[in-house]
Amino acid sequence: MVFGSSTSSDPRCDAVFSALAHAARRHIIDLLVQTPGMTVKAVSSHFAMSRIAVMKHLAVLEGAELLLSKKEGRERKLFFNAVPIQQIYYRWTDQYSSFWAGHLTDIAARVEQAEAAKETRRA
Fold it and tell me: Are 78 and 67 within 8 A, CB to CB?
């Protein structure tokens, strides 16, 4: 999954932002970062909502590819998948970091030249 850089909406990118928009889903991700391989039951124990409601949140996270699950017998172990977030990060940083790095380098050079000119005038 690679997110494009077009100005139109990317459904995969939208799914990630939508999944991250809910506090309960962000809390689920935090739990899975702290304890990879938690079961659905273990995740559910951290919420005051029903297990079915937690499972709906898990389905949204899976749909956005932020959650990976592995079936082991009757249990389903859950793992956070950071790849979609990393791809969103790269979408903007790769595109804009080179632009800003060039401009910041130019600004730094101009400041250094101005400081050198001031030193020359003082001497």
Answer: yes
* 23, β-bridge pairs: none
**CB neighbours of residue 72 within 10 Å:** 10
Token reading at 15: 């799914």
Q: What is the pTM of this model?
A: 0.71
Hey, what are 101's tokens? 């790095």
Per residue in 4-29, pLDDT tens?
544 457 889 999 999 999 999 999 99
Measured between alpha carbons, how far apart are the two ends of the chain, in Å? 60
The number of angstroms, rounded, from the C-alpha of 62 to the middle of its chain's C-alpha atoms is: 14
State how far the alpha carbon of 12 is from the alpha carbons of 17, 32, 72, 85, 110, in Å. 9, 21, 28, 11, 42
